[in-house]
Amino acid sequence: MNLNDILTLGQLKKSSYTSLTVKEEMRNNLIERLKKGMPVFDDIIGYEQTVIPQIERAILAGHNINFLGLRGQAKTRMARQLVSLLDKFIPVVKGSEINDDPYQPLSFYAKNKIAEFGDETPIEWVERSERYTEKLATPDVNIADLVGDVDPIKAANLKLNYSDEGVIHFGIIPRSNRGIFVINELPDLQPRIQVALFNILQEGDIQIRGFKLRFPLDVQFVFTANPEDYTNRGAIITPLKDRIQSQIFTHYPNSIEIGRTITRQEVKLTDAQKAQIHMPLLIEQLIEQIAVEARSSEFVDEKSGVSARLPISAYESIIGAVERRILLNGEKKGSARIGDLLAAIPAIVGKIEMVYEGEQEGAVSIAHKLISSAIRSLAPRYFQDFAEIQNKKSPEVREKYLKVSQWFENGNELTLESDISEKEYVSTLVKINGLKKVVANSIKADSSNTDELLMEYLVHVLAAYSMLDKKVMESSFIFQDYFSSIMPKA
Questions:
Q1: pTM above 0.85, yes or no
Q2: 417 is in which domain, residue-wise?
């Protein structure tokens, strides 16, 4: 029988429909997906062996879930995608505020409706996307918002006594009956409000004013929270945490390769940007490494975390810098350069929370340090012997890089402007004696990394290792001799 043909309780009884709890629905649909080898989540990368198996086990166990992790770890995205595990449609008593099951009505309205109409009680079908509710926990959330309260206007309009259940205005949790209810940033909910969730989680009951309600609510609860010591705004009170059966820890990407995949998936680019702008592998790696450096920096508050939104915003900022350069120079295409990392600074400073020492240094200064650290960290990937540069037992290695530094020792200076054309960019770099030869023996890693990009990168690496002096201006870099003063010739 087609769902559109089932419009009354009597017709529903004659159909093959079986009423299931929301957790049974999710469990059954998950089992089907696992049997068929289908993924539970779309576009969730890096959690395949860690977080996702824990979520699957929690759903199979019928648990309420708390995602615990720092910001930018896809907690809310995963919660929203759980709706795909619900049945496509379920029947409810038509007009019910709390998605009353026609077989097991809970509300005063639905019970009266069925008592009055019997098998002729009208029903309607609710699509699964309408069974997802999300609430951001803020200090101003109250009991009435979550659970409900007496509605004097409803009492007056319906001419009901205040002791009549018909005067109740249900809150967001009862209205999420037979669905998924998500509370984001649970620690921000006031402790006295968290207490109100105890009985709901344990017994499925709600308490509204003086009414003796015993509603066995059918709700899949999902909470998201930062670690309890993340801020001083609040914490999950222990008795509530005890009632959430599965606490699942999320995490940042375990490698910059996973980070690159996530960033490329999430960046928003126009068709013109995709066609005109080339993003080399090296630049993508540096963007991810900046986030890695920030997460371990002594100047950045590790309890706050560094969101995955940092590399996403940085990537988009660099694309914007390349596009601007193309327009200024009248070029048709362009490629990102090391110098374009300066364009990512506004994205970096807006995504990190600093400790006291970092505040003293200044946000922009810390951003420059993070970029320099990223450049230094990735150097061995492209110049394998670079780690031996200061080792006196490897004179041949030192000699190779000395040929580059000698150009600067002879009084030459390299200025790389951010907005110079591609032709000027190449001609400026090839002036440095020995630079192209060193790069020719480097690890290309990917065809997207041109010789010119690696030449520029090597100059920045030499500066990061204090072998050249680098001055960072508003829209340019100036490189001068510094190596000879700290590294005497053998």
A1: yes
A2: 256-486
